[in-house]
Amino acid sequence: MISTYQLLRFTRSFWLALGMLALFFVAFAFYVHAEKEIDRVNDIRLKSHSLAAELRQSSDDLTRMARNYVITGDSNYKDHYKEILAIRDGLIARPVDYHEIYWDLVLSDNKRPRPSSGEKIAFLDLMRRIGISTDEFAKLAEAKMNSDALALIEKAAFDVYESKVDTPEIRKQKAINLLTDDAYRAAKAKIMLPIADFHRMMEVRTDKAVNHAIDFAVRLRLLFILVGAVLIFVLWKSYQSLQFTLGGTVSELRKQLDKLGRAEFSESIAVPQGLEKSVLGLLSVAQVELARGDAHRRSVEIRNQRLTQFYNVLSQCNQAIVRSHSEPELFQQICRDTVQYAGIQMTWIGIVDTEKNVISVAAADGLGSDFLFDQLISTEEGSAFASDTPVLAAKDGRAHWCQDYLSAATPELWREHAEKLSWRAAASIPLFKNGSVYGVICLYSAGLNAFDEEIRTLLVELAMDLSFALNRFELEAGRQRSRKMEVLRSFMLERINSSVSLELFFHDVVKHLENVIPGSKCSILLLENDGVHIKAGATPSLSVTYSNAINGLSIGPGVGSCGHAMHSGVRVIVEDIATHPYWELYKDLALDAGLASCWSEPIRSSNNRILGAFAIYHSVPTKPDNGHLMLLEMAAHFLAIAIEKNRTESSLRKLSQAVEQSPNVIIITDTDAKIEYVNAAFVQKTGRTLEQVVGQRPSILQSGKTPLFSYEDMWDSLRRGENWQGELVNRYVDGKEYLELAHISPVRDVDGKITHFLSVQEDITDKKRTEERIQYLAHYDVLTGLPNRVLLEERARFAVANAKRTNSHLSLIFFDLDHFKNINDSLGHSTGDALLMELAQRLKETLREGDTISRLGGDEFILLLTGTDEHGAERVAEKLLQTVGQSYQIGQYDLNISASIGIAVYPEDGEDLETLLRNADTAMYRAKQDGRNIFRFFTQEMQARSGRHLELVNALRYALERNQFQVVYQPQISLDTGIVIGTEALLRWSHPDLGNVSPAEFIPVAEETGMIISIGEWVLRTAIEQTKHWHDMGWRNLGIAVNLSAIQFRHSDLPVTVTQILKQANMEPEFLELELTEGVAMIDPPGAIAIMNDLHQRGVRMSIDDFGTGYSSLSYLKKFKVYKLKIDQSFVRDISSDPEDKAIVSAVISMAQSLGLQTIAEGVETEEQLNFLREQKCDEVQGYYFARPLNTAQFEAFMRDRE
């Protein structure tokens, strides 16, 4: 800080200088006052002498007028005489500069030489005004009195001259004598003596005052000079103190301050010794602090920029996760995005093989990624990679960071690449699948310490997202496997139960599995009856040489995959034939046949006897996944069934063709219900052999869950000799329960006596489940478990009939979820489905037992409330809004939704479900229009509106082909030049029956029905072709603005369509401006940016319409490729009376100017609005003030008038 001594020194000098300056001004003021006093005294003296001379002059003028009158007889002289007396006595106004008037110079036209001043004042009063002394005034009063006495003589001469006593000559002579004799001259002299005394007295008094003022002024001059000298000295001392306080010159300080203002910190400020606490010293300290702060700010900016890059990467990767359909596709996209958007030098993703202890590269991108694909990274202890981050992350399942990669324990080859490719920091994060480490994602940056805490957090989050995607892929793969398994199961069961031969069955199975497993070759090998030798069952895709070579081989240990599997009875998986010991003797044969791997599954009979082996080959070394193993097992199982079935059928055919060919379980018992015979189906399905069950009762199959009355009914029928049919719940030997349909008939001998009972049993477990499932699917929604429309209609019919019978009410509530599509689009359908299931559960818990909640599909739900009038429905709707509006925790997302509800009440709003449903739907759409998250009851007004809507829909379908549309044009004016720079194309619809329909009414209908696409394209084509025509007419700089609807803008073909129309019309794209409302742009900002960029690259200009009515973000506005903002007419309309509208318009124009955008105001109707917009520097305007929307001819006439 500046020292106290410096401040006191400068302050003391400053206040002393200020005091001396004040004293200087006081002395100067007194001096000026003295000089003015001298001038005032001289002025009084001049005026006094002048007025005294005026008294003398007026006396002389009276004498002249009197003498001229009596000599000439001219009455003008007498009039002048009287006028002079009247002026002196204040009876008439004084002339200007009276002392310069000489009455003998009055012109012949009797006009005075000076105009009147307008002031009536007597001579003595005038003398009092100027401020003379009492004695001086007495002298002038005496002279005035004597002058008045002389005037009496002159009036006497007038009387003589005008009398009738003597002849005119005598009267004239007598009058002349009176005005020239000694008495007259003596009276005249009495006037001059007091005037002379007055002049003398005035001179004495004024000389004394002037001399006194001069003396005072001289003394003040001396004081003034002295104070000035002292002031100069004090100012010099103050300057020295200021220099000491500042530490340098003002110019030097300004120079240093300019540097600080420009953030130039490279050259430090030099401070002279002893002035460290001066202002310059403080600037030096401030420079150091500012330089430190600037360095910190730059580091923060760089850090924030990298964070932004990584957030962008996270966003791009999340999109890749959503869009990718396989791991390779996802991994490659992730690598590409991290390199492209985060400035990462190189990224690779490796798969961890825990059996081989290696990490293999699955995807890579960036500098040096090519050499990675030849690398196998060993995870074994002691390997060169043991301390590298990928291996550490794969082993302990945690992220590892190396902020100085070249200093870490890195393999030599990788170090060389790192030095060459500027890998300075490395990060490895594990990827998980099903809770275990599946792989690692590794990133390499060019900067040391590149991975700070926040970036590490983002990368870990990225790895978690990838792990989630891997689990999702796994689940999807599981579903695909299940589907394939089910298809295979159905196929094989169908073929097993068909009448095809076993050889054809083998062939079909093999070909089917080869289609299921791309790139595979399948075979079925059978074991000869001797249990030793192999014979080919089906090898359609294997070479003839290979098939002949293996035919007849003996099974045993190490005899290939199939020979070993049939010998050991266990599955054999050989991933690489060339290296596996089981194929040592046969690998050349296999490799020559193009076989590199072989997975073999033994085919076992129901009694665990080896029947053969099923094998899957690949032309490259391949490891099976769980799906492949399940397919192996299933194929072998069904092949065993087929083989056993074939063999059993052949055996049973010898005993009983009819019985043995039955696919159902057949049991023959004696009359005591002891089993004498069971068929193969029984053995196959129950797991019990004939030997095990003969002599036993069928009750060994009982589960204890069949109702007792079923058995009682069965025996009652059998004892009566009747057939019995029913369902029994039995149990297999492994404890598995199943449902069978049993047909039991008594068998009679030739005498008609019952000797046996024949039971034909069919396992209908799957069939029953299928029927129940079909029944369930027919009446319930699969996702939520809620009743569907079919069940709703059944219950509604019953509810309506009951309400009609009991004369009660019934309410139908129709609601859907607001903006639910956004959740599906942004978070995925799985998240949306989970939300719907959670909502369904809440609704079930909320409603009464007798009410029905049904899902119609998507996000639409129906509530059927029995015995509920409008008041009850209102309470339910309010409760429903609360229930729906509660937060939903779906996975990692905390979601909030709302509902729009429509209510229809029976019987007022309909007497059947269809009518109630339609009216509730209409009320629901009114709720959406009124702001959403509310409910509305159906009204007749809504029905009328619905009818109007339907009428518009039907009329719109033919409006375009019947030429009912017209494009009109509203001029756009430049405020700078007043020239028409363009026009906005507006659509009008004139229907023969409906009349002129407002765009506000039919445009939403066109958008809703999708007809806006064709209508919008027609408007665009018409406007462009018309504009090109005007260009050809000479208005070559005229632009055209066309509005885009939300549906048009989101249409994928928009840029191509616009380009084609421009090309067909042969019009340059820069004359076309596409207007997009602010709200439409903010529905999907990234998508809007992409479309705008495409149109911008094609040369088409974009503008934001109705700006200020939406919720756009300034960050997005900067990214939008727009050049103009259109101020909505709602702000312009009240701009002259509403301060808020004024402020909004001013802010929009100012913001647009700062962003380098133009502005145009619509709806300008008054000159006041126009002047305000001109003051605010708005670029362009349009509105009724200039012209309404015009048809083509009107617009051309308007343009000619403007010219």
From TrEMBL:
Residues 651-696 form the PAS domain. Residues 722-776 form the PAC domain. Keywords: Membrane, Transmembrane, Transmembrane helix. Residues 949-1203 form the EAL domain. It comes from the Bacteria. This is EAL domain-containing protein. It holds the Pfam family GGDEF. The keyword Membrane applies.
